[in-house]
Amino acid sequence: MSTEERFDAVVLGGGLLGCFAARHLTSYQLRCALIEAREDVCTGISRGNSAIIYTGCDNKPGTLKARLCVQANRAFEKLCAQLSVPFVRRGSLLVSYGPRGDYVVRRKYHQGLENGVENLEILTGTQAVALEPGLASGISSALLAPGTGVTDPWALCFAAYENAKANGCQIYLNAPVTALCREGKDWIVTAGPHTIRAGVVLNCCGLEAHRIQELCTSPTVRVIPDRADYLVLDQTAGPYVRHVIFQEPEEKGKGLTLVPTTDGKLLLGPSEQPGGDCPDRAVTLEGLDFLRRMAARIVPGLDLGQVIRAFGAVRPNPFYVRRECDAWVPETRGIHSFTIDNPCPGLWSLIGIKTPGLTCADALGTMLAGQAATYLEKDAPNPNFNPCRTPTPRPRDLDSTARRALVQTDPTYGRVICRCEDVTEGEIMDAIRRGAVTLDGVKRRVGAGLGRCQGSWCGDQVLEILARELGISPWDVTQDGPGSPLLGGKRHEL
Question: What is the value of pTM for the model shown?
């Protein structure tokens, strides 16, 4: 049965942008809610990206994107300390192997200086190879940006979500938005079985953001997605490079990026391909072949036998649209700054927020929440707002004395389930208490299944723990929500 509830503000979409918007709404004296279509947050665009925290060298000076990127990069240590999320300033090298790349290196150097990025330096090829001896010879120039960082995007999204919830945000899961309309000064949102009335709506629905906005307004911006493939190499390959490496190709197109991750692995990617109307996250042979060819050229000594996983991701590219007869046609040029649409009073839409969206998620959330509070004339700060999130126990990060003490308090933290990543039963149970209802939900929270064997050892045990803790049949446990059953076929029937 549908019931109507009243809030000052609602956020649509439980990705990084939505969770940070919700977090910052709770910093005001507002009654707010977060609505997510899926069974968990961090299941859309936010689940797949390069994990890089950019400095601002890539952004056109004077744009909102440039200003927020530089601001957010400088504040990232503080943000991750508040939310107990890993963050490391690896620094980055943009490497060139010819005149076209050299031009880009110089352009991004001057662009970064204009944006206020600190400590940038143009290096010779010899200097670059001295920093990264694993790179192929022939580097003609390189841009060193010491401020570039890497984080764990999943941990960041879940931390923002948990912090918003702890500060009083009401959560609605399994609630796809099917209607959005204006009634007087209020917005009426129909989401699953719920009818929700609010003064402000913040639309952070990723690939679906333009569709949600068009429930109540004419089209202005639409997302035309493309997709990408990535390779993940085991921790034995992690130290091959110490910096984030961006390769600027001489030919038109995407170069190779190498990212030493916060957990010691090495990420290679992305390929770049059209996504179509409904892109999926399946990897492609063309994309993987591209990554392997580029790796052989740029890091010829890297052992690709250390690859433990390939995955696909989707990027939302926004385009302005115009009407031609009965159709809405995208303009030929994409939109390069952040698109924050405010087509009606009390409705803000983030449409096609791509790189550096991860870097700027908190800054965008701050900005939107402030605009919403001002619009509602309720911009008094919440005196009880706590920006900090208490970290959950991670036995592998403790010394032997602290780990023994934790196990004595709760023996489930002494039973290792995932041997590759040293994840215990206690951590998995904690992940389920915090909202994990699928195998991937557990994996993204605590890392079970992320290691060398990719869950072949621990997957069945995680499934059993999920069924037990959720009080459901093992047959109802899924990998990643509806349509991804884990048990089935004659083998499991036997």
Answer: 0.95
